[in-house]
Amino acid sequence: MAVARSRVLDLMKVQCRIFNTTFNPDRLRTGNKILRQRLRGPTLAQYYPRRVVTIGDLRKAYPDYEVWDEKEEERLEHVGMLKAKGKGPPKKKKTAEESKKFAGKKKR
Amino acid sequence: MAQFRAKKLDLGCFVNARVIRDHTKRKVFEQFEPQRQALRYIIRNTTLPQRTRAQAQLQLSQMHCYTNPTQIKNRCIMGGKGRWVIRDFRMARYQFRLNALEGNIPGVKKASW
C-alpha cells in the first residue's frame, strides 16, 4: 500500500522536530555535518602534562625559609668532590694572551 | 613558529624543540578551530553562492599551517620520540617497557604464556 508523499514528509517533519535535526527533504548538501562535529581542540591541547610547582619555585616564593633540595645538594657534593681532586672546570682566562697560550700547540 | 610560541614554558614532561613545537601547534589549533570549522561549513554548504564558497576555500587554504590539525603528531612524553608512540600511555615503546617493568603504569604487567 503506497503512502502519499505529503504524509511521509509530515512524518519526517515531526521526526526532525522531536530529535532536533534539520528538516531537509530535498537532501541538499548544507554542510550541517560540520556544525554537528564536536570541537577537538581542547582534548588535543591536553596531551602533554603541564608544569607543576618545583622546588625552585618554592624557594622563590618563600625566600626566608630553607627548602631542602636533595638533587641539587647531591650535585653540589659531586662537584665539590671533583674540585677537591683537581678535576674541576678550568679558570676563566682574563687576558687575550692567557687564552692564546695553547692555541699554537695543537697543530700536528 | 615563534609568533605562536608561549613566552613561558608550561610543560611538565620531557622537553625538546620538537615537543615544544608540537605543543604550540596543539594550542594554535585549539584557538583557531572554530574559525576553521566555520570556513569548512561555508565550503560544504551548496546553498550558498559559489563566489562565497570559493572565497572561503581560499581563506582556509591561506590560514597558517599551525592551525591545521594534520600538523599535530603524538609524541612520547618521557623521551620526545615521534615514532611507535602508544596512544593510551602517550609513551614510545621503550619508555613504555621501562615504566611498565618498574611498575609506574597502573594495570600493566608483564605476561608470558
From TrEMBL, chain A:
Pfam family, one: MRP-S33
Subcellular location: Mitochondrion
Keywords attached to this entry: Mitochondrion, Ribonucleoprotein, Ribosomal protein
Region (Disordered): 79-108
Taxonomic lineage from the root: Eukaryota, Fungi, Dikarya, Ascomycota, Pezizomycotina
Similarity annotation: Belongs to the mitochondrion-specific ribosomal protein mS33 family.
Coiled-coil residues: none
Organism: Viridothelium virens (Speckled blister lichen)
Protein name: Small ribosomal subunit protein mS33
Automatic annotation (TrEMBL), chain B:
MF-aspect GO terms: DNA binding; structural constituent of ribosome
Pfam families the UniProt entry points to: Ribosomal_S14 (PF00253)
BP GO terms, sorted: translation
Gene3D superfamilies on file: 1.10.287.1480
Keyword match Nucleus: no
Xref: SUPFAM superfamilies: Glucocorticoid receptor-like (DNA-binding domain)
Signal peptide positions on this chain: none
Keyword line: DNA-binding, Receptor, Ribonucleoprotein, Ribosomal protein
Protein family (similarity comment): Belongs to the universal ribosomal protein uS14 family.
Identification of the protein by name: Glucocorticoid receptor-like (DNA-binding domain)
